[in-house]
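FORM 12-B: Structure-to-Sequence Request
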């Protein structure tokens, strides 16, 4: 994502807006593209003042609404055979399992799947074509599509824009010493977590092999119980023999 952001810096603002709208629009038609990565990178870029957040959000919303509408039209005309061809072309993103999950979402939530699908990577790609293939009424689709596109585009853009501005202000105020401490703390916590994970893995391996603390003593005890030898076993055996002899004398 940082490489995308650095690449966007080299473009004029109008090109960034067109790129955001174009990539998100094509993605919404049913073709897997990194629309969310472009939006996130552009929103963080807006926090530095290179582009304007309102235009980034507008471009993303227009791309989402128009792209979903085109995808709806294509899906309505092509139907399920079109979705099957897309699945063969993009099996990782639009294969039968992904299509089945998207259909389950539509069956469960109806037109709300279009609205909330804007926030889910899979449904963001399949919402338009799948709604068309399932013959969802276009007016209901357009309402959910527009609402979801606007909330997703403006909400994501301004949330990341605010976070980026706050982070930039915070980074200006802290000292290099604080930054070094933060980095060392992160490295130390990572080392500790890895060491603990190795210990847990080693302990699981020992338990799987049947070796636990005190395993030898446990094995001996288990063997003794299996052979009928228990603490005080000899005395118990003698006592049992005496009782049987007495019983015989009694007869």
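FORM 12-B RESPONSE
SEQUENCE OUT:
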């Amino acid at each position: 994502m940082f490489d995308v952001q650095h690449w966007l810096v080299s473009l004029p603002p109008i090109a960034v807006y067109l790129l955001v709208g174009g990539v998100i629009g094509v993605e919404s038609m049913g073709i897997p593209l990194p629309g969310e990565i472009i939006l996130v990178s552009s929103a963080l870029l807006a926090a530095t003042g290179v582009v304007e957040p309102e235009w980034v959000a507008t471009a993303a919303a227009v791309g989402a609404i128009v792209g979903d509408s085109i995808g709806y039209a294509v899906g309505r005309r092509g139907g399920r055979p079109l979705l099957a061809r897309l699945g063969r072309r993009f099996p990782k993103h639009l294969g039968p399992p992904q299509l089945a999950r998207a259909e389950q979402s539509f069956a469960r939530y109806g037109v709300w799947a279009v609205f909330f699908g804007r926030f889910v990577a899979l449904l963001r790609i399949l919402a338009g074509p799948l709604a068309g293939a399932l013959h969802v009424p276009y007016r209901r689709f357009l309402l959910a599509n527009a609402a979801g596109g606007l909330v997703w585009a403006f909400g994501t853009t301004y949330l990341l824009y605010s976070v980026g501005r706050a982070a930039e202000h915070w980074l200006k105020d802290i000292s290099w010493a604080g930054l070094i401490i933060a980095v060392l703390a992160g490295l130390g916590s990572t080392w500790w977590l890895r060491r603990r994970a190795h210990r847990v893995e080693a302990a699981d391996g020992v338990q799987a092999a049947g070796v636990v603390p005190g395993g030898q003593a446990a094995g001996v005890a288990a063997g003794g119980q299996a052979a009928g030898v228990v603490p005080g076993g000899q005395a118990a055996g003698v006592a049992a023999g005496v009782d049987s002899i007495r019983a015989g004398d009694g007869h």
